[in-house]
Specification:
alpha+beta; Double Stranded RNA Binding Domain; RNA binding; 26% helix; dsRBD_dom; single chain; 3-stranded antiparallel β-sheet; 114 residues; 3 strands
């Protein structure tokens, strides 16, 4: 038996008018690509607890190279019960920092005009 769908509801039950919110990790990858930086590196830097209640802590490293200078941004996330959430937490911290630095910059704003 197939689920009933309406014009505003997809087969998965989500409304078609609601856009999918991008993850912090995908936003971070996008900013790095648009800024011509290396891809962010996610590292699991801590695992604690018994195997049935383990927490993971991730950090993300963003290598920013602009106008002859190099800045390494390293952000630690909060401990989480799965690796995906832990990496997302680290990406949220990096995004917060980059937004406060003024990223993503507008296209053409950082390039010199002739």
């Amino acid at each position: 038996m197939t689920p009933m769908t309406s014009p505003t509801t997809g087969a998965d039950g989500n409304t078609l008018s609601d856009p999918v919110k991008p993850t912090a990790r995908s936003c971070l990858y996008e900013i790095c690509a648009k800024s011509h930086w290396k891809r962010p590196v996610f590292v699991c830097c801590n695992e604690e607890g018994p195997s049935n209640h383990r927490t993971f802590t991730f950090k993300v490293i963003v290598d920013m190279k602009e106008d002859g200078s190099r800045i390494l941004v390293e952000c630690m996330g909060k401990p989480q019960f799965n690796k995906k959430s832990a990496a997302e937490s680290a990406a949220e911290g990096a995004l917060w920092y980059l937004v406060h630095l003024g990223y993503p910059k507008e296209a053409g704003r950082s390039k010199k005009t002739r």
